[in-house]
Amino acid sequence: MAPMSVLTRDEAQTRAKLLDVHRYQIELDLTRGDEIFDSRTVIRFSTRADGDTFVELKPAELGSVTLDGNPLDLDTLHLDENRLPLKDLTAGEHELRIDATMRYSRTGEGMHRFTDPTDGETYVYTQLFMDDVQRVFAAFDQPDLKAVFELTVTAPEGWTVLANGITERQDDGSWRAAATPLISTYLVAVAAGPWHSVRTEHRGLPFGIHCRRSLAPHLDTDADEILDITRACFDRYHEKFEEPYPFDSYDQAFVPEFNAGAMENPGLVTFRDEFVYRSAVTDTERQTRAMVIAHEMAHMWFGDLVTLRWWDDIWLNESFAEYMGYQTLTEATRFTDTWTDFGIVRKAWGYDADQRPSTHPVAPDPEAVPDTASAMLNFDGISYAKGASALRQLVAWLGEKDFLAGINTHFARHRFSNATLADFIESLAAATERDVHAWADSWLRTTGVDTLTASVTAQPGEWTLTLDRAGSRPHRVTVGVYDRDLNDSRALLLRERYETDIPQQPAPEPRTGPRPALVVPNDLDLTYAKIRLDDVSSETALRGISDVPDALTRAVLWNTLRDMVRDGDLAPAAYLETARAHLPEESDLAVVQGVLTFAAAQVADRYLPAHERPAALATLTSLCRDLIRRTEDGDHPGLRLIAVRHLIDVAAQPDTISAWFSEGTVPGGPELDPELRWRILGRLAVLGAIDDAVIDTELVQDPSATGQEGAARCRAALPDPVAKRVAWDSMFTTDDLSNYLFTATAQGFWQPEQTDLVRQYVDLYWNDAVALAARRGPAIAEAAGRWAFPAYAITPETLQAGEQCLTESTPTPALRRKLTDQLDDLARALRVREA
Q: Is 296 a residue of the active site?
């Protein structure tokens, strides 16, 4: 795939000054076969002055172009990569008609086409963010040129077509979608195929959930839960927001091989169909699905109704939806502890991203986002997790009433239009006397993580907490004060919680009572900062973290220990010892999952030297066995499932998990569903305990898309030189793998146990990844940088080779960003090993 020219901010501003785009009429014909489809577009627009501009289009073949009724000569009309020039436009109204043949995608970009290996049915859907509209139809592709969209789709017999508006099948067999209100080009959506649908109505609007037919039984099982969450969030947003839901329907389509978690297309939200659970999941995973539903629905207002003007303000979309997703779920559903999961999972993502050289402000300066390629790099833990954390701190400082008043002012001022950070801050300022401009400068325009270090001094009958700040942001934090229970020395009791501002001015006053056993700054996790405990509290946390009564407080403490390991302030082995001692007593699923994941994927696999890894795996195996024994009564199925999964992942010998596989069950449960069977086979493949024949046999039993991915992962994991060469060529030479099969193969390829076997591929990676990214585009580039990177080759030589690649080669922006982050993580692992 040849790269497309990126749109610069200056070009977008110039075009926005010239054009006013009114309406698109789009006709898509999806009956042309497996590779191509027809796209016919009529754009009605006006120019404010005489001038030249261009429209974006990336066709397989350009059929015809007509401007104001005059056919343009294709022999002289030069399509410059993805830009069709429009010369000598006069001020006034214009009509542009373009007929083109377009190519389907296999990478989750543009119009993605997927054939289900289970039943042979085919599905297509669009993913047009950020600049992939031009892969589907001709457009003035930038967010501040909103227009009305009318869509007609010709699809094979037996298909249903979904779109932003309500669709109806016409007498000629085509499908027509109701015209949209004013929306941005990247938000147009189509999903077509023989969908299985569950439909209902709520508040007079049609609601629907959709998936491919082979997943129908699984969607039906969870349909009530999904729709209940949808209705509850919809109602809660209408209590918060004065502006009613702005579109004519609300469909949620679970689509195959989707790169993101979901996409906020107005009226047709698309989700990765892993959220239609084929196998057992934990309640935390159900909570994650619910949070994504709430997140995407928040975008209907913040992102779709009011849209950013340029991509430097992407945080306005994502931070708001992230915050609202977690908060609304807590308020409106049975998932009342969502902020614990946010703290242990999402916030850690933000902290990690903010300490890499690729960090950026939550709201970067416009000059720092000069084009769409650079903007795409900002979809990271900063725009999501750090931004949501900043908004949570803003609500704590401002008060929810004033915050919502400012949000509603923002919606009223900019509905069906575009807005900037300055507009948002002005709307907030109208609702409060506080200096939100100064807050924005401190929180949104700066980079890095502040560190709050606690010190406690004590006198008879009183004690004083001092919080020193390394950083520049103001913080309002809740301090938790805990004592040992006199009747149970293992228990910690909350003495009090109190709020304090940082910097502490004037100096903190002494508090009455004896010195506490544990003082937790940021006890309710309302700010975004690394925490360093005082010496006594640090010892209490290491020896008694499971004694802390509140799960959110335990999450804050586990994050503190995690940060200390990453910064070289706590030995990785000490983290493992704390996990071994206290995780068997943990009740919160998000905490157990988060700690086990960090302990295995980072501590055991990367931070400890290779010769210490077997002992670490033995420790984690023993920990998981304790959790399995604790859950034998069947009262904690989610906890047991987490323990079983992780025991499989850290198994150093095949005997136990091979017996589970043969018997089809874990003794005492659970029975092995497809996810657990492929997980076991993946680990047995790494250990060299199975061969291709076993993988092929399992694939016969589970020929689904997930089964195909599991088989690819297993084959790539086999400790066999031929298997490794086949896997490498499939990723970097043939270009036949879809985005999901590429990821699965990459996940299997690199294993800590196989560093000697794959050593030659470390040297091959750099040039092969650069070439692959240039050929296949951003989605595969991101996967190659994330999953195909030699993460376990933790040597100075790997670091040097990677840095040489960055300086001497020309990776695409997407790959360069991933390599920069991966190399920084590699350098951190080396520092931790040397600490």
A: yes
